[in-house]
Amino acid sequence: MDKFPKPEDDSYREYLIAVAKEAQAYDLTREFNDSTSGKRPDIKPQDAEDDFQRAQKLLDEAGAIYKEIIGENPKEKEFRPATRAPKRPSPSTPRSSAIATKTPRPRGNRSRLR
Known about the structure:
It is a single chain. By secondary structure, the protein is mainly alpha-helical. The chain has a domain at 7-79. It is 56% helix and 0% strand. It contains three helices and no strands. It has helices spanning 7-36, 45-72, 95-100. Helix 1 runs antiparallel to helix 2 (45-72). The protein is flat. The N and C termini lie far apart (68 Å).
């Protein structure tokens, strides 16, 4: 498929290419692991090593594409690296957010509810 005229539009095409390269790399790595663990005796050690080197190259290429598309389309949230959510709410977190993160609520006097 040819490039799209706008870099923002083409970034989605490039993203899919990077995802495909990453998937190929994981598949090659799985075959390498199966070969070295003895699960796949049909794969020669040299072929397994070649697969592993190819997987490394594919991951490097995918990483370069990911970096490139972040610059082409900085507004797209899916292209940015994932960030971890905090494990505990900070003291400045509103009460409703604290409940959403499964912070234990204080138990009141249940006799009032009856």
